[in-house]
Amino acid sequence: MTDTSGPFAPGFVERPYWWDAAPPTPAEAPLSDSVEVAIIGGGIAGLSTALELGRNGVKALVIDREAIGWGASSRNGGALSGAGGLGKVRSDLVEAFGAKFVAELVEEGESAFENFEALVAREGLDCDFVRCGRFVGAHAPKAMEGLKRRAELVNATGSEQAFLIPRERVAEEIATDRFHGGMVLHRAGSLHPGKYVRSLAQAAARQGATLIGGVELRGYRRAADGAFALETSRGPVRARHLMLATNGYTGGATPWHRRRLVPVASYMIATEEIGEERVRRALPKLRVYGDTKKVLYYFRPSPDYRRILFGGRASFVNADTRHSAETLHRFMVDLIPDLAGVKLTHSWKGNVAFAFDMMPHVGVEDGVHYAMACNGSGVVTMTHFGQVAAQQILGGSNRVSAFARLKFKTVPLYDGRPWFMPFIGMAYQLRDRLDGWRLREGR
C-alpha cells in the first residue's frame, strides 16, 4: 500500500516539541499602577533581568502580550555557545570592529557561557543542561577559511576551546558526506528551552518579580520627573525604569527599537522516536550542530537521545508549519540519508531578530533599557544581557559590557517590516548553490 501520509507520523501536531513537557502557562496577578521597573517581554532576556534585579533587592514587573515564555525563548533549538556564536553570521569581525574590541567581545562571550553554567547550578534550574560541544559543518571548501578565523578568535583567549576537523574525519561527528570539514567548539552545550524558560520564570518569581501574561504595551511617554507612563491593554502603569526585551516580537509601541530589528521566522521539526542507537548512528558525539551556509541548518538530538530535532530557514515568507515541515524533512534526509523514512511528530516556528550589523545589542536609549538582536543564537547571550541590563538599571557595574558600546543602527526608510526578506532569501539560496550546496538530483 502506498504511504499517503508523507513525512507525518500519526498524531502529528503543529506546536513546539518542547511544550509537551513544559507548555507556557498563563501568569495571572494584579497589575499595579506603579512599579520600580517594568520589563516588556517575558522571554529569557526579560526574566533574566528580573532575576538579577531581584537578587539585588529590586522587584520588577514583567509583562508579555502572550503567556510568559511563549515566544522564541521556548521555541528555539536549545543550542548554547559562548563567543563561538559571534561569527556565525559574519567572519569579518576584526575588519569591522578592530582586533582589540573584538578581543573584548570574545572574552565577554566566553565568560557569559561560564556564568550561564554557574547560574543553572546556583538557581537549581531544571532544564536538561549538558555541556556537549558544537560541530559546525563547512558547506563548501572555502568555508573552512571562515571556520579557521572563527577558531582563531575563540582560541585567542587562551582557552583553546575550538579546533578544526578535516573532511576525512567528518564521519566521526555526523553521518553525512555533504560537509568539507568542520569546527568543534568545546565550550558549547544544549538544554530543554521550554524547561529553561519555565525554571527561569520560577527563579525570578522567587526573587519577588511579578509576572503577568496577556498584557500588551500600547505606548509610553516620559514624565516630567523622568519616570515612564505606560499604556497597557489593562490600564496605565507608572515605572521608574523601563526595559524592553521583545526581540523578534517587537511591535509598533516601540518604533525606535523596531526600526533596528529584522524579525525572521525560523522553523523546526521533531522526528518520531527512533531510539538512541539510531540517533548515535546519525550524530555519533551527540552534540549540537550547525553549518556555514547562508540558509543554514541547525540540529541536535532530543534531551533523551531518542529523536532528532532539525531546524532552519525553510521559508523567507510566513509559511505554515505543515508545509515547512515537509521542506525541513527533505533537507534533513538530504543531509543525513540514514534518516530516510523517519516520520515527524512536531513542527513549529518562532521569530528570531537580526540587527543590521549582525551583532547582539544591549544598552539604553533615551532612558529605555533594551536587550535585543540575538541573531539566532540567544539562550546564553540573552541570559547574559539580562544581567547586564539589570546592572545598568541598578546604577552600573565595575565593567561596562563591550556589547553595550556597539552602535545600534538602522537604515533609511526601514520601519520594522522586512519586506525585503524574500529577495534576500533568494540571494542567499543562490549563493549557497554557487558554493556547491545543491540538493541531490531528484529532490
TrEMBL record:
<protein>
    <submittedName>
        <fullName>FAD-binding oxidoreductase</fullName>
    </submittedName>
</protein>
<dbReference type="Pfam" id="PF01266">
    <property type="entry name" value="DAO"/>
</dbReference>
<dbReference type="InterPro" id="IPR006076">
    <property type="entry name" value="FAD-dep_OxRdtase"/>
</dbReference>
<feature type="domain" description="FAD dependent oxidoreductase">
    <location>
        <begin position="37"/>
        <end position="391"/>
    </location>
</feature>
<keyword id="KW-0560">Oxidoreductase</keyword>
<dbReference type="InterPro" id="IPR036188">
    <property type="entry name" value="FAD/NAD-bd_sf"/>
</dbReference>
